[in-house]
Every structure is written in C-alpha cells, then in structure tokens.
Amino acid sequence: EGTQSTITQFFEGR
Amino acid sequence: MLEARLEQAGVLKKVVDAIRDLVQDINFDCNDSGIALQAMDNSHVALVSMLLKSEGFSPYRLDRNIALGINLTSLTKVLRCAQNEDILTLKAEDTPDTLSLIFENAENDRISEYELKLMDIDQEHLGIPETEYAAAISMPSAEFQRICRDLIQLSDSVTIEASKEGVKFSCSGDIGSGSVTLRQQNNVDKPDLSTKIELTEPVTLTFSLKYLVNFCKASALSSVVTLSLSNEVPLLVEYAMGSGFVRFYLAPKIGE
Q1: Which of A2, B54, B169, B219 is the least crowded, having the fewest Cβ atoms under 10 Å away?
Q2: How confident is the model at residue A14 (pLDDT cuts 50, 70, 90)?
Q3: Could you report the per-residue pLDDT of B180-207, keeping only the tens digit for each?
Q4: Which residues partner with B50 through β-bridges?
Q5: Positive or negative CA dihedral for B235, B241, B245, B246?
Q6: Would you call B251 exposed, middle or buried from its count of C-beta atoms within 10 A (0-12, 13-18, 19+)?
Q7: For the purposes of burial, counting CB atoms within 10 Å of the CB of B105, is it exposed (0-12), middle (13-18) or buried (19 or more)?
Q8: How much of chain B, in percent, has pLDDT values that exceed 90?
C-alpha cells in the first residue's frame, strides 16, 4: 500500500 | 474593526461542518480578499484551505488585517443557534478577544446576538506551490462521496488512476477487492452530473480513504467536486462555492 507521506514533505513553511 | 454580513448563515455552517473533524483550532485570517483559513490535520497528512471572498459579504468592512483564533467545536455550538436562512453578521474589534455573531431572520423580527471567546493560535502557514496538474477530474460530489464510502468498506487505501479512457478508483483488502471506473460524459440537461477529465499525462496515485471520506463532508457545499492529480504530489480536492472555495490537499502514499 505504500508509506503515508506528509504535506510538509511537499509544501514549504513560510 | 471587522463587519461582514452574509446573506445565508447556512454557508458558514456548511463550511465549518466540512472541516471540523479534520482541524480543531484555526485562525480565520481576515484581509481585503475575504476570510481565509489554512490548517493541517494533527498528523500533517491533510491540509485544508478555505476562502470566503469579500464579494460574498455585503457589506464587508475591515480596517486592518486580523486573525480570529477559533475553536471549531465552540463555533459549531454557536452556529447551531442560527437557522440556515438567517442573515449572519460577524463583528470583531481590531485586537479582538471575542467574535460577535448576529443572526437575523429574513422577516427581520428576530435578532440573536452571540459572543464567542477567541484564542491565540500559533499557526504554521505553508506556501502551496502553483501546480500544473497532469489530470483534473470534475464529477458530481455525491458520486465521489459514494465511491469513497463504498471502497472504505474493503480497504484503507484507494488507488486513483486517470487515463484517457477514464478514471478508475480501485482498492484491495482482506475480504477482496473492488473498483469503480468513471468514463467522461457530458450531461447537457444537468451539467452538474457530468464527468470531465482533462489529462496531459496518465497518473496513478494511492491515498488513504479515511481522509477522502472526511473531505466528502464538504459535499453539501457544491454539487461538483474537482480532483487534481500529478504523480508524486498531494491530491487537490476542491469544492467551489459561489464566492469562495474549500480545498483539501492529501499527501499520497509512496512506494511499496
């Protein structure tokens, strides 16, 4: 099923 | 100060109902564009982004940008005191401790006034990159809700496969497997019931169904939902309203 990634892996903090 | 009058309290009720199981303490960021929020769920797997545009309010008055720190469970309790058809006015001072909510019935012979205590919420804001998605699928929101609710009975995850033939939602679990394929179709009489697929390249991604089922609570906001996908980036699930939107982003499951 794969490993759950997180939003913060894709979108950067500002 | 802020003064924002919404013709139908039901709009805000639906927005809050759509997101309150995903995020609890949020800031309503009030600026010239309108009232916005961005928040991640506790596990940082999903992000919700909402905008109620200033044009949707009449009037919309704001002297300076303010953030209203709100517990959504508390806001829900206050909003339950409003009828869907009531006119809703939000009022707050420039450095507010409370948010005033005023509900007036259409006949203008009942006025209810509530004050909600605000909180200091330190919220991380993420930059959401402009993305050219490889596939954009618009479909009836009720259909998407049904597919997610059906498939979660078999599995925790769904694989969404968009190709020029259509979009396939498939899953497999302990008791077996299942799939639903939608082909592009144009309903001339009822455009909201159409399924449209815009594709630049085929995409296959796997997502947790628990979150998708949760996003579908926004189905009351719009009869159409748009799913935007590109390989290896979060899925965008968008519910557009007359003057605003609720967007959910869901991080994919990656690798084996």
Answers
A1: A2
A2: low
A3: 999 998 888 998 899 999 999 999 999 9
A4: B37, B246
A5: negative
A6: buried
A7: middle
A8: 92
Judging contacts by C-beta atoms under 8 Å, the chain A residues touching residue B231 are none
Q: Do B125 and A14 touch (CB under 8 A)?
A: yes
The predicted complex's ipTM stands at 0.94
Q: Which residues on chain B place their C-beta less than 8 Å from a C-beta of chain A?
A: 40, 43-47, 124-129, 156-157, 206, 208, 233-234, 249, 251-256
d(CA B99, CA B141): 32
Which residue type is seen at B56? G
Residues B69/B11, Cβ–Cβ less than 8 Å: no
Mutation choice for B interface testing from A3, A9, A11, A14 by most B CBs within 10 A: A11
CA B64 to chain centre: 26
B118-164 pLDDT tens trace: 999 988 789 999 999 999 999 999 999 999 999 999 999 999 999 98
pLDDT tens digits for B215-226? 999 999 999 999
Q: CA of A7 to nearest chain B CA: how many angstroms apart?
A: 5
Count of CB pairs separated by less than 8 Å, A with B:
60
